[in-house]
Amino acid sequence: MVLDDDFQKLDLSNNHDNNRILDKHGHKIKTDEFSISRGKTNKDKANRATVENVLDPRTMRFLKALTSRGIISDFNGCISTGKEANVYHAFAGDTISPFEPKTHDSFENLVNTYDPYSNPNNNDTILEPRKEYAIKIYKTSILVFKDRERYVDGEYRFRNSRSQHNPRKMIKIWAEKEFRNLKRIYQSKVIPVPKPIEVKNNVLVMEFLNRGDGFASPRLKDYPYKDHNDIVHYYHTMIVYIRLLYQVCRLVHADLSEYNTLVHKNKLYVIDVSQSVEPEHPMSLDFLRMDIKNINNYFERMGVAIFAERIIFQFTISETLDNFNGNYSNEDDLRMYVKNNLPLKVPGKDDAEDEIFRSLHLVRNLGGLEERDFDRYTDGKFDLLKSLIAHDNEKNFSASEQYNFEDNTLSNDDDDNEDDISNSDPDNSDSDDSDSDSDDNDDDDKVDVFEDKKDKVLKGKKYEDKEEKKQRKQEAKESKREKRKTKVKKHIKKKLVNKTKSKK
Ligand SMILES: Nc1ncnc2c1ncn2[C@@H]1O[C@H](COP(=O)(O)OP(=O)(O)OP(=O)(O)O)[C@@H](O)[C@H]1O
Ligand SMILES: [Mg+2]
Fold first, then answer.
1. 209 CB under 6 A from ligand 1?
2. What is the percentage of the chain residues whose pLDDT exceeds 90?
3. For the chain, what is the domain count?
4. How is this protein annotated for GO cellular component (predicted)?
5. H or E segment at 137?
6. Domain that residue 376 falls in
7. Please, which residues bridge with residue 75 across strands?
8. How far is CA 136 from the centre of its chain?
9. Are 10 and 52 in contact (CB under 8 A)?
C-alpha cells in the first residue's frame, strides 16, 4: 500500500492546513518497518493501523513543528509498534548536528545511501556520525489509557491534572511524565538511559540506541549473551539498577522487564519509564515487588541462581547496607556487594516465605498503618517499614513468626475487647471471666494456619486435659493483666494515629 494513498484515506474532514501539511510533508513520513541498511528499503507499505492509530493530523502537526524547529530532519521507518506507543527512527535536525548533508535530496536516496560516517563536506576531519533519534509517539486511543490511571493517580507530581478524563490531555501528561523521568535518571548519571531531547504533546524525542549497523540495539530479551557469567552479570546489574533507581533517582520503574531494557555498547540501558512512580506513590512498594518478581522470573528461566524476592526488596529500600564499604552510587561496587553478600534463594523454604512477602500489606508510615498493625507497632514488633524490612529478615518473614503475629493480633484484638470492657469498668472482675470465656472460644478455634487442614481438630485445645487447661488459663490471665498495665489505651492510640496523619 503506497503511503500517499494511505494519507488520502486519512479522515481529514476539516479541510484546512492539515491537508497542506500532509501534502507538503506526507511523502517524507515513512511508517513501514525501519531498516536502514545498504540494501533497498522496501517500498512504503504503510501499516494502516500504524498510520491511523498514531500519525493522526494533530501528531503530524507536532512532527512538522519539530522538523521546522530543526530538532529532527527526517522521519524514517517504524522501530516498534507497542500496545501504548509506536517508536520511529529519525535523524537529528540542523540545529543539533552541523554535519547534516546540505542537500536535502529525496528521502529514499538519503536512506539508501545512509552512511553515518559519511563526510558530506569532503574535508579530511573525521565527522561525528549523524545523530539519530528515536521518536516515541503515544497512541491516543482511550482504551489503552484505562490501566494507566493507577500510575498517575496518587502521583504527587500530577496531583493537579484535572484532565483525568480527557484522554488527549492524559496522553500529554503521560509523555511528559516519561520525559521527566528520563531526564531525572539521565541527570543522575548512575543508570544508562537514552538521552531525552524534547517532548511535544504525545511525541517524545530521545537518543536512538544504534547497535552500530543502523539497527536498534537489542532488548535484553533478544540479547545474544556471551556465556552463563554474562547472564549473571546482567542479573546483578539489573538488581543494582533497581536499587539505584529507588535510592538515587527516587523512582520505581513499575514495568521493569527484559522488554524494557536494551543492551547498548555492552551496557544495560533502561527505557520506557512512562509508568515509573516516586516512592511516595501509594502503590510504589507493590510496583517494586512486581518488578523484582518479573526480573527474578526471567533470570530464573535463563538458569541463573536467583536471590529471594524479599532479600532483593530489602537490598533496594535499605538506605545503608551491612559490611558495605564502597560508593553507594557506584554500580561496580554495588554489583560486587550483591555478588558477595546476598544469600542465594533456598528453593522450597524461600518460595513459601516469598509467597508471604508478596501478600504482605506493606506500610510506609503511620498514616498507612491499619489499626490492628498499630498494636504491633506499639508493642515494638516493628516501627516503620524500613525496620520491618531492613533488619533481621528471617524473624520478620519466617512463616512461624508471621503465624505468631496473627496469633498476637488475635490476642491483641482480645485485649481491645478487654480494653473496651475494662474501659467501661476497669475493676470489674467479671471482665476477666467473660474474657476467659472469650479467650476459651478463641483458643478452641485458633488453629495452626500452617498446619494441614485435615488434622486441625486434633490440634485444637479441646483435647488437652482439664488440669493443664486450668493452669494455662491462669497463666494467660496473669500475662494479660501484666500487659494491660503497659497497654496504650485505645483513645490515646487514636490520638497518636491522627496526630501523625495530620503531620504527613
Ligand atoms: N531510544 C531507543 N533506541 C532504540 N530503540 C528503542 C528506543 N526506545 C524504544 N526502542 C525500541 O522500541 C521498543 C518499544 O519501546 P517502549 O517500550 O518505550 O514503548 P512501549 O509503548 O512500552 O512499547 P511496548 O508496549 O512494546 O513495551 C523497545 O522495546 C525498543 O526495542
Ligand atoms: Mg515498553
1. yes
2. 33
3. 1
4. cytosol; fungal-type vacuole; kinetochore; mitochondrion; nucleolar chromatin
5. strand 132-138
6. 365-391
7. 90
8. 19
9. yes
